[in-house]
Amino acid sequence: LSRASAQGEGRALVELTQQPILVATANTLSQLEASRMQKAEALGPHHPDLAGLDMQIAATRASLASELRAALSSINEEVVSARAEVAQLTQDLDQLRQQASVQSSPQAEYLMLEQEAQSAREVYEAFLGRSKEMVDRVALLQPPVSFVSHASPPDAPTFPNRKKLLMGVVVLSLVAAGAAVFLRDLLSPGFGEIEQLRALIGLPLLTAIPRIAARDKHAVRRHVLDAPFSTASEAVRSLLAQLSLSAVQTGRGRVIAVTSAAGGEGKTSLTYWLSALARTGGQPVLVIDGDHRQSTGRRADVPAQRGLTELLTGTASISDVVQRDGETGVDFISAGAPGMFAFDPAEIARLRELLKTISQSYSLIIIDSPPLQCMPDGLVYGAVADQTVFVCRWLETSRAAVTSSIERLKSYGANVTGVVVSMAEESAGAFPGAPYSGQPRRLALPYQS
């Protein structure tokens, strides 16, 4: 306002003051000046009409100046009053600040306590409402019951009846055990009872050999040497004695064929055990491997050489093929090169003559025959041997395989001395004795086959 008043800018003053009269007067002055400029351009600067306009413009300017002075005077009064009010407000503000600085700490503590009290009041009111609600609900749920008399407790529980329950459990256990045994015998392809085997085959059960707990195959082979008084060793020794007692005296060495229906039934391990025990008794023993699938020589850690195949074909002599196992001192003839033999009458006669010749030097000759269901060679070896031992694996060899294999052996003229059960559980009850340690033995590894 000071700048506008000093420079005489009336329009700026009008805009700043926003007075209606000043605005109207300023607008009239602007219109008159604009009209004069238009007429001056149109009629010339010395036209008579311009004189009247100049007089109006002068009067309007005088009126505007008068109104401006009045407005400025009013504004100055307002400014003075506003400054006085500002000074008073500033003084009041300073006093309030001083009072606030003195009262700020107690007031803040008061406000905090008031907030805590309000929170506690709200929590209390909530708990009070919940308590009233629970009291009302209990009153609604509580039945109108009155106490009449005391109930006397029973001497024994009425339920459950422990005696009947125990009897029921025992009966169910017996039924379940019987059903399990029946299902095992029904679903198992092999023999689960010794009496079943005896009744089906119609042959003597020579012995039952238990499973052997051994770390590897070599330990299984050496079992009869490392544990001569174990159940398995006693079973093999009993088998060897029975074979000796049932043999016909011919004045030469005996030929025994060990065979089975399928592979993996323990006939090779049984062959090794029989030969090892017979050799420890001082008998000269020879083992002939008739199974081309896996040679005894390789199992004895001896490289494969000429064997039975070369003997039958006439390409080697007996002295060329006989080897000795350094661990047991047992002589053996490996299977030799794989070959297919028709076993016509001439070949069978040659095999008989070969065994007759060998039996002059050995008191016991054991032939490890191939499985009857895999190769027909086992039937021929059984027919030319003095005695044939059939190996049946406990719970594994099917009944049909056992009966058919024994019938085929008999039809080919084999002298089947009896059956040996291999890898049997000790609960089978067919072992000739018990281990001296009195400890049960569990199987860790099946026999070789």
Automatic annotation (TrEMBL):
<protein>
    <recommendedName>
        <fullName>non-specific protein-tyrosine kinase</fullName>
        <ecNumber>2.7.10.2</ecNumber>
    </recommendedName>
</protein>
<keyword id="KW-0829">Tyrosine-protein kinase</keyword>
<dbReference type="GO" id="GO:0004713">
    <property type="term" value="F:protein tyrosine kinase activity"/>
</dbReference>
<dbReference type="InterPro" id="IPR050445">
    <property type="entry name" value="Bact_polysacc_biosynth/exp"/>
</dbReference>
<dbReference type="InterPro" id="IPR027417">
    <property type="entry name" value="P-loop_NTPase"/>
</dbReference>
<keyword id="KW-0418">Kinase</keyword>
<dbReference type="InterPro" id="IPR025669">
    <property type="entry name" value="AAA_dom"/>
</dbReference>
<comment type="similarity">
    <text>Belongs to the CpsD/CapB family.</text>
</comment>
<keyword id="KW-0067">ATP-binding</keyword>
<keyword id="KW-0808">Transferase</keyword>
<keyword id="KW-0175">Coiled coil</keyword>
<dbReference type="Pfam" id="PF13614">
    <property type="entry name" value="AAA_31"/>
</dbReference>
<keyword id="KW-0547">Nucleotide-binding</keyword>
<feature type="domain" description="AAA">
    <location>
        <begin position="254"/>
        <end position="372"/>
    </location>
</feature>
<dbReference type="GO" id="GO:0005886">
    <property type="term" value="C:plasma membrane"/>
</dbReference>
<dbReference type="InterPro" id="IPR005702">
    <property type="entry name" value="Wzc-like_C"/>
</dbReference>
<feature type="coiled-coil region">
    <location>
        <begin position="65"/>
        <end position="99"/>
    </location>
</feature>
